[in-house]
């Protein structure tokens, strides 16, 4: 198999992976909107869409790893980087890789943001639950827990 054919395989795999990353980013943006607007009813659907998008992205990454292995490099993102550092890849292939790296970075940042918002929401719910039980809305300290371990339940 010629180098051009193997590079085309890598290009196709990267294009598929970029598409998967863009789909994941759209789901993460939707998740951010749901978390921000407290649309709890929509959260289950978003979580399922996120699971599907991540699975598709992982499948695309496996194809990319197989394609870069056919070029004689490690079947990983590091292998792609090593290949990109050679003189072989076309400018189009290098540009596609840069776009994918940018998109994956945006997904990671959105996911971190959503996790922070989600944790904050969970803390608010815990405070409300404590208030409903007639307890202080403030989280228990270690000292309070040591005196009454059942209070942490």
Low-confidence parts lasting 5 or more residues at pLDDT below 50?
none
Tell me which CATH architecture applies here.
Up-down Bundle
> What is the CATH class?
Mainly Alpha
Class derived from helix and strand content: mainly alpha
What are the secondary-structure elements, in order, as H or E? Answer: HHHHH
CATH topology name, in short, is: Methane Monooxygenase Hydroxylase, Chain G, domain 1
Largest sheet: none
Number of helices: 5
What count of structural domains?
A: 1
How confident overall, as mean pLDDT?
86
Helix content: over 70%
Strand content: under 5%
The CATH homologous superfamily is termed FlgN-like
Count of distinct strands: 0
Q: Identify the overall geometry.
A: elongated
Query: What value does the Rg take, in angstroms?
Result: 23 Å
Distance between the ends: 62 Å
């Amino acid at each position: 198999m010629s180098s051009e054919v193997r590079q085309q395989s890598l290009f196709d795999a990267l294009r598929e992976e970029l598409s998967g990353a863009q789909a994941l980013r759209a789901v993460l943006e939707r998740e951010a909107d749901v978390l921000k607007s407290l649309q709890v009813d929509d959260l289950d659907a978003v979580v399922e869409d996120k699971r599907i998008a991540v699975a598709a992205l992982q499948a695309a990454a496996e194809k990319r790893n197989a394609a870069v292995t056919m070029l004689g490099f490690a079947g990983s993102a590091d292998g792609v980087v090593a290949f990109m550092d050679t003189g072989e890849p076309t400018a189009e292939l290098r540009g596609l890789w840069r776009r994918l790296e940018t998109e994956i970075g945006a997904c990671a940042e959105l996911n971190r943001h959503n996790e922070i918002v989600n944790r904050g929401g969970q803390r608010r719910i815990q405070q409300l639950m404590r208030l409903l039980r007639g307890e202080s809305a403030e989280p228990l300290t270690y000292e309070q827990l040591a005196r009454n371990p059942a209070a942490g339940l």
